[in-house]
Amino acid sequence: MKLTSVRIERALTQMDGRVIPESNPIVQELISIFGDHTFFVSNAGLSTVEPVEANDAELDKVRIVRLARWADESKASLVPHPPINTETMVTLSAAA
Predict the structure, then answer these.
(1) Nearest CA-CA partner of 3 in 88, 62, 65, 86
(2) Where are the alpha helices (DSSP H) in 1-96?
(3) Residues 91, 95, 96, CA angle at the centre, nearest 5°?
(4) Could you write out the DSSP letters of every residue in 23-71?
(5) Contact criterion met (CB below 8 Å) for 66 and 44
(6) What's the distance, CA 41 to chain centroid?
(7) Tens of pLDDT, residues 54-71
(8) CB 95, CB 22: distance < 8 Å
(9) 3-state secondary structure (DSSP) of residue 34
(10) Strand ranges of the sheet holding 61-70, from the earlier edge strand across to the other edge
(11) Which of 25, 35, 58, 74 has its Cα between 20 and 30 A from that of 2?
(12) CB atoms near residue 69 (< 10 Å)
């Protein structure tokens, strides 16, 4: 899923890692592989977020979903894998 800049900032206060800016040339390649999402990179690899509940129209709570892991300790390249839902939840509402 795509997040607004405000929701990206809220998410980053609750999770490790950083957002990959849409201006980064790699984003178009990531979109072609994983779909149109906001992408985050951390020590664990590449991730995005998805709604916890399908009927959550306000998108108050999302789950971190891992999409790829680092190939090795150098963290120079990623290895895609099937999406892995983590137990980490992020609250995106203004009250968070």
Answers:
(1) 62
(2) 5-12, 26-34
(3) 35
(4) TSTHHHHHHHHH-S---EEETTEEEEEEESSTT-TT--EEEEEEEEEES
(5) yes
(6) 7
(7) 665 566 899 999 999 999
(8) no
(9) helix
(10) 18-19, 40-42, 45-51, 61-70, 78-91
(11) 74
(12) 15
